[in-house]
Predict the structure.
Amino acid sequence: MKIAVIGAGHMGRYHAEKFAALRGAKLVAVVDADSARASALASKLDTEPLINHRELFGKVDAAVVAVPTDRHHAVARECLQQGMHLLIEKPIATTLAEADELIELAARKQLVLQTGHVERYNKAFRALAKRMERPIFIESERLAAFKQRGAEVDVVLDLMIHDLDLACSLARAEPSNVSALGFRVVTNDIDIANARIEFENGCVASLSASRVSQTAVRKLRVFQPGLYVSADLQAGKLRYVRSAKGEIEQIDETHPGGDALADQAAAFATAVRKNSAAEIDGSQGRRALELALTVGRLVRERLQKFA
């Protein structure tokens, strides 16, 4: 599979490294409008640097779109029109209309369209998901220090969208009600947010995200009848708690190592090779985007009341 990475920034660099090392794939080029950045990464990975994604047309089978979010739609649309399978960094686009156009175009062209919700490939999350049959409450906490990278979108689209996707995959139902609140701290947009998601099957999720914290945290807690699981997705640790013969039983698991980004790259390559649907396809990316946009809108409406 001949593949290119479009966008040689923070995430683009990691994607390029994974595909350069992936068996059965050949990294043909890295593309970035900043020629120096493209050249530096291309030199490191022994591939070709390009400054325009249109130079890829007719040369590759697939591409990773890792440009800033506001350019996802324009770049992805042109690539799909040229018959390229795509892995698009999250969020899939900035609007639902843009996401719908990409999904429809990929379906019409019979192309793989995968959304980069990489946390689904976290080893600890995958182990947790196998044990959870009927979650009734999901709680997540995702905290990070402020970085200029990603600041073109709010914290919901930057960080919380990971957990919105995880909650949907665990709940196995469509959202029915959303409430949210949040605050601006260092930017002119939302830097801290909390959302409560109710699903049609009765499951409830409470999700918190901050990009102005001093310590990085990626915690997830899931409750179902007879079982509670606490996960540290950053450390790869799980703790299962349940009642056994009138006593509290606790089982700890560790899922060290693993490379979620490499596993995501391999899954995408497999889908392309088999011409099968992506495990995390455009429609799932759209669902996470719709929830993120709803949360963002509700936070801004609440902030306006107190302005």
